Amino acid sequence: MNLPNKLTLLRIIFVPAFIIIILLDFPFHFLVAGLIFGAACITDTLDGKIARSRNLVTDFGKFADPLADKILVISALVCFLQLDLLGSFGAIPVTIVLFREFAVSGIRLVAASSGKVVAANIWGKVKTVTQMVGIVLIMAMQALSEALKFFHWDIGIPDQVYLYTGIALIWISTVFTIISGIIYIKDNFDFIKNW
After folding, report:
1. Residue 194: is its pLDDT beyond 70?
2. Between the CA atoms of 153, 154, 155 and 161, what dihedral angle is there, to the nearest 10 degrees?
3. Residue 118's CB: how many other CB atoms inside 10 A?
4. Is there a domain that residue 195 lies in?
5. Contact status, residue 123 vs residue 179, Cβ threshold 8 Å
6. Would you tell me which of 21, 121, 171, 185 could form a disulfide with 33, CB atoms 3.0–4.6 Å apart?
7. CA 176 to chain centre
8. Looking at the predicted structure, is the pLDDT value of residue 70 above 80?
9. What is the model's pTM?
10. Strands (E), the chain
11. With 90 as the cut, is the pLDDT of residue 135 above it?
12. Backbone conformation region of residue 144, classed left if phi is above 0, alpha if psi is from -120 to 50, else beta
């Protein structure tokens, strides 16, 4: 197994640690979970760059890399739902993300059965980046709020500011999720027609 594929698998291995840390309630758990999530995001950047620069692009990598991204992002969004960080309507963007990911994965599986590996397009990458950036920023805001409370500092920012900013970030990434899903379906409509 080459280095980019090992980095992709490492990203998947980070997921259980991230879930456990973010859901446990101990001082600075958002900071620790954010660092784990950030490290996983770095593997996403590195695996693609290394694969392209060293000509190590494989069919496994084309399939596993976006799958690892989906596992990481969806795990974070589900944890955010459990922690009530996405507001009253948080299930809507999470459902949209899940629907898009299942639809795209279905197309990939049909394509694979025809002997074609469909790699992520630029819109899928933009979607992933906006999701990851939004998730990292939400955790950074929660870590800041947690630190301020821990040290009994009051800088006058109500908790609702963190909540609504996080909700806005998730909805922005959801817009890119919808756009990338529509483009992906349009570009691969031949596989859908043959179902």
Report:
1. no
2. 120
3. 19
4. no
5. yes
6. 21
7. 12
8. yes
9. 0.89
10. none
11. yes
12. alpha
Assess if residue 194 is contained within a domain: no
Phi, psi of 54 (to 5 degrees): -105, 10
Confidence of residue 195 (pLDDT cuts 50, 70, 90): low
Q: Is residue 178 within 8 Å of residue 124, measured between CB atoms? A: no
Q: What pLDDT band is residue 111 in, cutting at 50, 70 and 90?
A: confident
Report the distance separating Cα 179 and Cα 124, nearest Å: 9
How far lies 62's CA from each of 36, 44, 58, in Å? 23, 12, 6
Tokens of 174: 């959801």
Instruction: Check which CATH number belongs to the domain holding 111 and give it.
Output: 1.20.120.1760
Amino acid, single-letter form, for residue 88 = S
| CA nearest to 24, candidates 79, 66, 69 | 79
> In terms of Cα–Cα distance, which of 71, 192, 177 is closest to 131?
177
- Residues spanned by the domain of 125: 3-188
Average pLDDT over residues 22-30: 95
29, part of any domain = yes
Q: How many domains, in total, are found in the chain?
A: 1
Q: Which two tokens stand for residue 24?
A: 């446990």
pLDDT interval class at 192 (50, 70, 90): low
Q: Angle 173-43-3 (CA atoms, 0-180°, nearest 5)?
A: 140
